[in-house]
Amino acid sequence: MLDKLKDMILPRQTTFSKITVIDEKCTGCGRCVKSCPIQLLMLDADNKCRSNQRYDAFRCITCQNCMAVCPAEAIAITGEYRVGQGFWKNDDLFETPMTFPDPLGQGGLTNAESATDKLTETEKVIYGRRSIRLYQKKQVPRDLIHRMIEAGRFAPSAGNSQPWKFIVIRNPALIDEINSRCKKALRVHTRLTLPKAWLDKKIPGDPDARFAWWQKIILPLLVKLRPGDTDQRVRGGVNTVTSDPEYHIFFHAPTLILQLADRRAIGGVDYDSGICFQNMVLTAHALGLGTCYVGLIDGLKLHPRFRREVLGVVDPFEIVMALAVGFPSGKIGRFVRREKPRVIWFDGSRG
Ligand SMILES: Cc1cc2nc3c(=O)[nH]c(=O)nc-3n(C[C@H](O)[C@H](O)[C@H](O)COP(=O)(O)O)c2cc1C
Ligand code: SF4
Ligand code: SF4
Question: What average pLDDT is seen over the chain?
Fold first, then answer.
């Protein structure tokens, strides 16, 4: 029983992906360092990329962005995120190892060039898109934002509700203010979900650090009710984001689009909003723009007055998601590996 609770609060049997840097190839450009969403990498004294142990060890989400942005192909990622026991157990749910896109069933594709003549333009956009966290300073012309929004407007929605509404922010001071407010609010998350010693020392999980008595009581409840917000990778990631004064949750993108939704939408807002934004994201990629969803915008929930009086978000609308938009800095076109699909087929007749 005690072990069950311990594994729920923080899974003990976990393996993470392993990032290997080929020193001979690494030029020390620092692109991977800036692109990692949770600051897992740093440059050492010899200007070589290394694992950054400044915060918690347990947070790599295996997004492979570091690998995708590296111009020298100096990064290799092996292994997957696996938990061996307890509430978070997943090692029996995926077939290892992760693979590159294989739409043609002829072996994985590592980049768009490897199948230029065989893939549709849509497929190339889907596989070639990455979350972009390296932006040029140059502002995005309004007509390109208009094209993204038009693509969103024609997304399907339950009951044709079309519940979306957008706030486009191109004022750096306002984007910075939203960044600070979200980061401040997110500190509540770390205080609730991590041992105080890890917050104070800001170093990798000290195995002797204890959760407070009240955390031992509320964490199992929180985990049960909101597993998506209490996954150890989220907790470690949020600790990084909030402890690093330089971290900008919108990566200094020149444009920020907030997606609002009418909470009375037929069938609920989440699915419609996701489809709408993904239309916009894929269109942006096809137009040569980079985007990154920023779920950390949730922090604004703790700033109702700012939301209402500065951003003009009033009932029945609520902020669903944020999207950083800008021109990508450098080439970010490599495909990445993902978990193998889990599919159940029922073929043929039942008779
Ligand atoms: C709903 C949603 C919320 C996300 N929130 C964030 C975020 O707050 N910060 C961030 O850097 N990336 C965020 N991402 C990007 C994911 O980390 C990224 O999509 C994932 O790691 C896969 O990488 P890829 O988009 O490059 O394929 C979010 C993505 C989605 C779909
Ligand atoms: S895989 Fe993603 S989270 Fe892990 S180190 Fe690379 S960029 Fe960071
Ligand atoms: S992006 Fe590649 S070359 Fe640049 S620092 Fe990282 S590993 Fe080195």
Answer: 93
The answer to the question of residue 58 being in a domain is yes
Residue 2 lies in a domain: no
Domain boundary pick from 9, 44, 78:
78
For ligand 2, the distance from its centroid to the CA atom of residue 67, given in whole angstroms, is: 8
More confident call, 202 vs 175? 175
Question: Considering only CA atoms, which of 185, 314, 184 is closest in space to residue 260?
Answer: 314
pLDDT digits (tens, 9 = 90+) for 195-229: 888 887 655 566 677 899 999 999 999 999 999 99
Determine the atom of ligand 3 nearest the C-alpha atom of 73: 2
Q: What is the number of the ligand 3 atom nearest to the C-alpha of 69?
A: 1
Reply yes or no on whether the pLDDT at 2 is more than 90.
no
Q: 67 lies in which domain range?
A: 18-78
175/306 same-domain check: yes
| DSSP letter for each residue of 112-152 | GGGGTTTS-HHHHHHHH--B---B-SSPPPHHHHHHHHHHH
Taking the CA of residue 251 as reference, the ligand 1 atom at the shortest distance is 11
Q: Provide the token pair at 281.
A: 């994201």
> How confident is the model over 137-171, as pLDDT tens digits?
999 999 999 999 999 999 999 999 999 999 999 99
Pocket of ligand 2 (CB under 6 A): 19, 36-38, 40-41, 60-66, 77
E strands, 33-99, are 41-43, 49-51, 75-78, 82-83
The structural domain count of the chain equals 2
From the CB of 131, is ligand 1 less than 6 Å away?
Answer: yes
